[in-house]
Amino acid sequence: MMESGIASVSFRSKSVEEIIAASAAAGLDGIEWGSDVHVPAGNITLAREVRRKTEAAGLKVLSYGSYYRLGAQAAEDEFSRVLASAAELGVQNVRVWGGSKGSAELLPDEWSGLIAEGRRLAEKAAENGIVLSLECHNHTVTDNWKGAKHYLENVNHPSMRMYWQPNELKDETYNLAAAHALAPFVTNIHVFSMEGNRHYPLGSQKIQWEKYLAALDNGSPHALILEFLYDDRIESLSQETQTLLGLMHARKK
Q1: Which of 40, 114, 121, 188 lies at a 20 to 30 A Cα distance from 86?
Q2: Contacting residues for 111 by C-beta, under 8 A, at least 6 apart
Q3: Within 10 A of 22 (CB to CB), how many other CB atoms are there?
Q4: What CATH number does residue 51 fall under?
Q5: Helices and strands: H and E segment counts in the chain
Q6: How far apart are CA 34 and CA 17, in angstroms?
Q7: In whole angstroms, what is the distance from residue 251 CA to residue 253 CA?
Q8: Per-position DSSP letters for 69-101, written without gaps between them
Q9: Which strand (E) or helix (H) includes residue 47?
């Protein structure tokens, strides 16, 4: 099963109410709320209210996009605040970041420390019915698929998984290889069309995305979450949603 959504970080300048209204009008299934602006970690009252407003509009809170970064020597109570907000949002998936260094930069003891921390946090998340999903991003342990796979296999915990998104600095061949290799670990997928530092309408990479989604089909449910529209305008959400829904419909045939 696939669900469609938008990451609230795509519209940081917009209010919760504006994002909800645009998402419902576009025909999306739900929203990934970010902790940077719209639902800061630890603000329980706000998280509860955002969930209420989201569900009242017929939408689902798909996930919580936290900015908790492994390896940053963050206090344990910060992670507890993330989990508390996730619980109020009613999600089972929380995005986290895999450190602050690329996989090739990590020294052996840094690898060991990051793996131990990941396993410890995954265990704590599991106690709360939560799965942690690493952000697929440059300058972190998931900067390439080999490093990401190595990390996840060594953490070896069902509550430590990852999002997937194409690497805008790599070609289609690399991204397809990454999708195939990481498919068993992927929860949600961030969907966008980007090359280098330039964004394009999703339809411009429709063929590539058809291939990516086929490679990522692991039999588990995925949320396909639009992120950072090509023109950053909330008015373009309906257009991009129609392209996304077309991709999803094609996968169901």
Answers
A1: 114
A2: 151, 154
A3: 20
A4: 3.20.20.150
A5: 8, 10
A6: 14
A7: 6
A8: ETTS---HHHHHHHHHHHHHHT-SEEEEE--SS
A9: helix 44-56
Taking the C-alpha atoms of residue 121 and residue 157, their distance in angstroms, rounded to an integer, is 10
Q: What is the pLDDT of residue 73?
A: 66
Residues 6 or more apart from 229 whose CB is under 8 A from it?
10, 192, 199, 236, 237, 240
* Whole-number pLDDT of residue 250: 87
Radius of gyration of the chain (CA): 17
Tokens of 212: 């990516």
Q: Kindly list the averaged pLDDT for each block of 10 residues, start to end, along the chain of length 253.
A: 95 98 98 97 97 98 96 80 97 96 95 96 97 94 96 98 95 97 97 92 96 92 95 97 96 71
Residues 6+ apart with CB under 8 A from 56: none
177: which 2 tokens? 């290889």
pLDDT at 197 (0 to 100): 85
Contacts of 199 (CB under 8 A, 6+ apart): 192, 193, 228, 229, 230, 231
Q: Say what the pTM is.
A: 0.96
* 169: its two tokens: 């600095």
- Number of structural domains found in the chain: 1
Query: Nearest Cα to 168, choosing from 159, 178, 156, 180?
Result: 178
Query: How many whole angstroms separate alpha carbon 241 and alpha carbon 19?
Result: 14
- Containing domain of residue 136, as a range? 2-252
C-alpha distance from residue 193 to each of 46, 104, 167, 181, 208 (Å): 32, 27, 10, 21, 9
